[in-house]
């Protein structure tokens, strides 16, 4: 199975918007998104490389599987 690697924030925004997240607001360098099935916000920092731990936490928040993530990153 392919590994999840750090990506830039623009790629993360594209992936999570395709997964159903909607932009709510920005707080400093952090973009705050809402997902209908999530109990808390999805936060994407505006970093050149978003760490894998943040990506995995956001995936867990909305219930996204590794396969879904990897499929969307290659679209």
Automatic annotation (TrEMBL):
InterPro entries: HicA_mRNA_interferase, HicA_sf. Pfam families: HicA_toxin. Keywords: Endonuclease, Hydrolase, Nuclease, RNA-binding, Stress response, Toxin-antitoxin system. GO terms for molecular function: endonuclease activity; hydrolase activity; mRNA binding. Gene3D superfamilies: Hypothetical protein. This is YcfA family protein.
């Amino acid at each position: 199975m392919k590994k999840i690697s750090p990506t830039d924030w623009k790629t993360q925004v594209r992936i999570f918007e395709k997964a159903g997240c909607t932009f709510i607001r920005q707080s400093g360098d952090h973009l705050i998104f809402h997902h209908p099935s999530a109990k808390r916000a999805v936060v994407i920092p505006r970093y050149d490389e978003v760490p894998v731990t943040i990506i995995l936490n956001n995936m867990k928040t909305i219930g996204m599987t590794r396969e879904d993530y990897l499929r969307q990153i290659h679209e």
